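Tokens for chain A. Residues wanted.
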């Protein structure tokens, strides 16, 4: 498998990032902020009717928060720690949504005291906590959706509730003095099947209509979450193609007068801007007659590549070494037998690859630094640089 870097980065951008990388010890991620700015503009242009709430969990770096704040982004926040970090960058509470449905009552109060007035929920217990700790706030209910089977990083049933329960919760929200504001869903991260949004929007339409007709509640907002893909090894449709189809789905169900639409991009904003630079520690075989080589690198599942779990996300890997390719197993440096990134999916790397050669993992700006362990085997967290 031969990677063409120009499929992922403009030549001048890659040249700049590699020149910087050459001056630093591995492993680390280098991120081009201009690429993030362009990605934000592309989403805004393709969804001119939507409000963008950056999913901070994708990469909580101050450099990214400040860039997106200056471009007018809002922020999807999952914890009090993310809240403090973004507000320290000057983000205002009205730009924030507490998007985690699993939260302590005292954390809800903390958000409320900081001025945040929009909260996600998917259960009665959480809703009652919001009513007590954040009276009068807007709430939106997350529903379960189909489509995880066609997403590279599928979502479990951990978040969301069935449609009937969602309607009951929105009625209860009104009765508890909250504002039943809208409905949210997430079709799965790195979602390849655009039709997944159609089915989810259809469910939302039913909730909107039934609550208005049966309970006199006029919902105002649809939060469509994230799911737009990044540019990994397996190609996807363009963002423009996603936008055209999703806009059509929305207008088929809601007409030209759309409710407020929220998007929560994370991966699609940040991933394509990053290169994780690692070094080959060892190349070995398991026996004299073994066909497979094992390539061990100084980065692994526990130092930023957790999304290789079950080989879900297949990152493009480039190396300066050229020549004949051979399938390899790629594994990390830790004393944990699970620290294997790719074993079943065969990556072809040059036969002359050796210790101290560098591997460049492309499209690694999202969910790398934020997933990196603190001190497993004594290895420090993954370093990051922003150009």
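Reply:
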């Amino acid at each position: 498998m031969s990677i063409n870097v120009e499929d992922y980065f403009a030549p001048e951008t890659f040249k700049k990032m590699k020149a910087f990388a050459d001056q630093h010890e591995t492993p680390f991620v280098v991120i081009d902020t201009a690429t993030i700015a362009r990605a934000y503009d592309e989403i805004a242009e393709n969804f001119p009717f939507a409000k963008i709430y950056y999913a901070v969990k994708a990469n909580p770096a101050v450099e990214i928060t400040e860039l997106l704040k200056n471009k007018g982004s809002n922020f999807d926040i999952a914890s009090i720690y993310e809240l403090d970090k973004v507000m320290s960058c000057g983000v205002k509470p009205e730009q924030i949504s507490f998007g985690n449905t699993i939260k302590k009552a005292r954390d809800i109060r903390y958000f409320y005291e900081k001025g945040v007035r929009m909260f996600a929920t998917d259960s009665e217990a959480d809703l009652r906590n919001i009513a007590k700790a954040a009276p009068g706030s807007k709430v939106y209910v997350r529903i379960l959706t189909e489509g995880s089977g066609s997403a590279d990083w599928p979502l479990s049933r951990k978040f969301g509730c069935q449609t009937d329960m969602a309607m009951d919760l929105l009625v209860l929200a009104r009765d508890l003095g909250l504002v039943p504001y809208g409905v949210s869903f997430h079709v799965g991260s790195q979602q390849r099947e655009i039709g997944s949004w159609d089915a989810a929007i259809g469910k939302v339409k039913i909730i909107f209509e039934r609550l208005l007709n049966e309970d006199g509640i006029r919902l105002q907002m649809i939060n469509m979450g994230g799911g737009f893909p990044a540019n990994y090894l397996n190609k996807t449709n363009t963002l423009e193609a996603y936008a055209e189809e999703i806009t059509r789905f929305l207008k088929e169900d809601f007409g030209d007068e759309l409710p407020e639409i929220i998007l929560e991009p994370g991966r699609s904003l940040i991933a394509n801007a990053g290169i994780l630079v690692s070094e080959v520690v060892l190349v070995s075989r398991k026996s004299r007659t073994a066909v497979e080589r094992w390539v061990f690198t100084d980065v692994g599942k526990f130092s930023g590549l957790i999304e290789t779990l079950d080989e879900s996300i297949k990152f493009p890997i480039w190396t300066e070494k050229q020549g004949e390719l051979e399938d390899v197993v790629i594994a990390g440096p830790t004393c944990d037998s699970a620290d294997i990134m790719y074993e079943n999916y065969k990556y072809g790397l040059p036969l002359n690859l050796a210790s101290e050669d560098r591997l460049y993992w492309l499209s690694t700006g999202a969910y790398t630094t934020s997933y990196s362990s603190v001190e497993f085997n004594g290895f420090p967290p993954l370093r990051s640089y922003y150009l």
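The first helix runs from residue 11 to 21. The chain has a mean pLDDT of 92.
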